[in-house]
Design a protein that fits this description.
The protein folds into two domains: 5-67, no CATH class; 78-184, no CATH class. Helices cover 72% and strands 0% of the residues. The chain is built from ten helices and no strands. The chain has helices at residues 8-16, 20-26, 33-50, 54-67, 78-90, 97-113, 115-132, 134-149, 157-164, 171-184.
């Protein structure tokens, strides 16, 4: 498993290293969004497995070791990755508006500007989201939508961002001149 670049060291130390999960769960350190999720998921896994009778726990681990597979999906380019991402997520949990906006905005960069620029802006997007926190980053889009629309929200956020932000189809301009400056404020 590969974590986001910002979380690579944390993931290695707290998930992949021997006894890392137990240290993470016992830790009282203040963590940022993605790292909190790692701790919450690790704690839930430990809680649920401890509640199982011994025979069920053994059966679970045998099942995981012998009957489960991790499927890695590789795509030739980001366009295909975004299509697969959308299809897979349509069959499970709803995406947050910022997930949809990210896929659309970064997908436009890839199709117009190429791989290198797309990766640069994907990294910038992640840095902005990481610095604000996931919830605050989502709220940022609500505020930006309000600034541009100059009226109350009447539809879903993604649609209104698309409708009111004239820069929406100009992804690089949108990130450089709208999202990043408002995030900095």
């Amino acid at each position: 498993m590969i974590a986001r670049e910002e979380d690579t060291g944390f993931f290695r130390a707290n998930i992949q290293e021997l006894n890392g999960i137990m240290k993470l769960v016992k830790s009282t350190d203040k963590l940022d969004d993605s790292r909190i999720r790692y701790r919450e998921n690790a704690a839930l896994l430990i809680e649920k497995t401890r509640a199982l009778p011994q025979d069920e726990l053994i059966a679970l681990w045998k099942f995981l070791a012998n009957d489960c597979s991790l499927v890695v999906i590789s795509t030739p380019d980001l366009d295909a990755a975004y299509r697969i991402f959308s299809v897979l997520n349509n069959r499970s949990l709803d995406l947050a508006p910022i997930d949809i906006l990210k896929a659309q905005v970064l997908g436009l960069i890839r199709s117009v500007e190429g791989k290198i620029l797309s990766r640069t802006y994907a990294k910038l997007w992640s840095q902005i989201e990481f610095s604000l926190g996931r919830d605050a980053f989502g709220e940022l889009f609500c505020h930006i939508r309000s600034i541009y629309a100059k009226k109350k929200q009447k539809s879903i956020l993604v649609k209104e961002v698309q409708d009111y932000l004239t820069e929406y189809k100009k992804s690089i301009y949108l990130i450089d001149n709208v999202i990043k400056p408002y995030a900095d404020v």
